[in-house]
Amino acid sequence: MSDFATLDDVITLTGKAFTTAEQERIEALLPLVSDLIRSEGEKYGKDIDAMVSDSASYASVVKLVTVDVVLRILRQTT
How far apart are CA 57 and CA 46, in angstroms? Predict the structure, then answer.
């Protein structure tokens, strides 16, 4: 399974230049946040990966949520 967002997505959506250390943390967080979203979907019987594959607009929303959660985690721990 692939991550719902990439480092490039985070950079593009924020318009921010991240340090090398921040980029490494973002790359480490992306798979964890993606799995968190999958896990939440499973609680409600939803296959988020299938839903993302079926709808470009849903994929965009999931990408945005992934980036938002990653940024929130970064802000809390820096």
Answer: 17
Which one, of 62, 69, 7, 37, lies nearest residue 77 by Cα? Answer: 69
Q: Tokens 């019987």 identify what position? A: 45
Does the predicted model carry a pTM greater than 0.90? yes
DSSP letter, residue 15: T
Give me 11's structure tokens: 């950079």
Single-letter amino acid code for the residue at 29: L
CA separation for the pair 52, 74 (Å, rounded): 25
For residues 10 and 64, the answer to whether their CB atoms sit within 8 Å is no
Distance CA 52, CA 61 (A): 9
| pLDDT tens figures, 35-67 | 999 999 999 999 999 999 999 999 999 999 999
